[in-house]
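[agent] plan:
  1. take the single chain provided in the ticket
  2. run structure prediction with default settings
  3. attach structure tokens to the ticket
  4. add a short note for the reviewer (M.T.)
[agent] executing step 1
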Amino acid sequence: MVLYRLLIILFCTLTIASGQTIPLVTILDYETGAPISGVAVYNAGEKEHVLSDSLGLADLAQVRHDKPIYFQHTAYKKRKLTLEEIDVLGYVVKLEPRSYWTEEIVISSSRHRQDRADVAQEIRSVAPQDVERNNPQTTADMLGQSAGVFVQKSQLGGGSPMIRGFAANRVLLVMDGVRMNNAIYRAGNLQNVIAIDANMLDRGEVLYGPGSVMYGSDALGGVMVFESMSAKPLLTEGSAFIRYSSANSEKTGYLDF
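[agent] step 2 finished; step 3 output follows
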């Protein structure tokens, strides 16, 4: 009889102990499913907290769970859950990334990146999304469609951009910091801009008005600055397309990776 009572007490003790055991919670990115490290897990009083490790695991046993539990990270939206809700989720908590809005960055006016609001000159920017949407045949067409630049074309294989009546040696073309023309070039129409592939540009900017102070006397009418796509470390991706135009029998193929 005594042995039977001891067995009952031992069974109840094990049951209570197992009921108090809380599994580790896994914290993941809502979009990618990747584990998030450095997430602060704390209760309402913020007196007890724990940080998730490199695998996104956090021990809730270190946090008092008689109150709502908060999951907070600087790059994600804060989330509040009770222990019962975490149990329903299978001890997997997903956080939504937080979006940050920043001002547009330009580089043409001062040759270094700065906020658009700090630039006094009028600047028009062309992003890769503009190129993808308009699908221009040449970079000259890209400037005419997206940057508001008048383009003189005597035939479909040409394109001479003009800014407020200035062209050729009065408008400077810069590709990745390298000048494509200068003041000794011809004063007539200049087609150098079509040598740039619009699909490999990270951004293009048109600076209206004289840029002689920063770029020299060959930038009397304005400056068109282009930046090619930069490499992305530890990331492999690519894009490709084939285009045919019946208007001028254009055949274009493009590939990058």
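[agent] step 4 note for reviewer: Residues 2-19 form the longest helix (18 residues).
[agent] ticket updated
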